[in-house]
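Appendix C. Worked example: MarR family transcriptional regulator
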Amino acid sequence: MSGTREQELLSRTALGTFRLNGQFLAVSEELARPAGLTAAWWQVVGAVLREPLPVAGIARTMGITRQSVQRIADLLVTKGLAEYAPNPAHRRAKLLRPTQAGRDAVRKIEPGHAALAARLRTELGEEGFAETVRVLERLSEALERVAEP
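Step 2, the predicted output written as structure tokens:
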């Protein structure tokens, strides 16, 4: 492969991240299935468990398009797992919040989620697991800064 060492590192980082994304999606689908959710539905409901958010805010947090989140949010509302609420800060951008059924569905995922977290902690070690999180967050923040126009 031609190019600089930095280009090689960037390519390896991107390929590793794409693979990791695929692995997380596969594991998430397995964890979410018994609760009657998909990984994408879980992701969107999970984004609003602490506080209701507008679709654009969920999209920003998740790093995906607003249109993708809107499609999933509408589906969650249709399925009774979430609902739209008025947004005092913006009349047209309603807030998405989970219903009790949505909260119950996410709660069904928690035992499998906890078990996977414990297995990863055992595999990586407590400090290694925490360092992995720090490195990924740092990479995301750096890429956000350098990719700005």
